[in-house]
Write a structure and sequence with these properties.
The chain is mainly α and 193 residues long. It is built from eight helices and two strands, in the order ααααββαααα.
């Protein structure tokens, strides 16, 4: 179990580092550009991921519930310095998950009590997939690290069929010929790699 937790924390840290790399590659003229997430610009996508990271210390370290936090992270959380806002939020999330005993806790999410390990795995997968979205939007390399793709594929596969129903993801599509792990992951989440 301890080794599994160490692996999870390593993947989480790698996913945040990958997204950080992409955030720092956004040019000044790209913040309003579209992304594969049809409702979001580059800034909206980075804002979404930043807000998600801001929740982590409250939920994991402080034991707060979604209801306790309310709308604290709604709207623009990037301000005038989006890269710095992302960096601070990612550092705080990484620190919260890595704290002694953090992954053994239970967090209170919108859909109920959830083991912190499951929450961390979901957050890791979200960062991986959105790193691809951001890469495509800004013209960066879309190749995701194999360890992160494998992790995300293992995480998403058991519940992939229900993701489109949640409204958070596009319906799955047929993966392209060749069926690489990355293209299969992206297709499961309604993206054409």
């Amino acid at each position: 179990m301890e080794n599994d937790m160490a692996t999870l924390l390593a993947r989480h840290s790698e996913a945040l580092a990958l997204f950080t790399e992409r955030v720092h590659a956004v040019r000044a003229d790209q913040w309003d550009d579209p992304t594969p997430c049809t409702e979001w610009s580059v800034r909206d996508l980075v804002n979404h991921l930043t807000a998600e990271q801001l929740w982590v210390p409250d939920l994991v370290s402080d034991g707060a519930s979604i209801g306790d936090i309310g709308d604290a992270y709604d709207g623009d959380v990037l301000g005038e310095r989006p890269r710095a806002a992302w960096d601070a939020a990612a550092r705080a999330a990484r620190k919260a998950f890595a704290a002694d005993g953090a992954l053994e806790r239970t967090v209170r999410l919108s859909y109920g009590e959830t083991p912190a390990v499951a929450y961390c795995a979901q957050m890791t997968t979200d960062a991986v997939v959105h790193a691809w979205d951001l890469s495509r939007a800004i013209g960066a390399s879309e190749r995701l690290p194999a360890a992160l793709v494998g992790f995300a594929l293992d995480e998403v596969t058991p519940y992939a069929s229900g993701l489109a129903k949640s409204g958070l993801f596009a319906p799955p599509i047929e993966p392209p010929p060749g069926d690489s792990h990355q293209s299969r992951l992206l297709a499961m989440l309604g993206r054409r790699g």
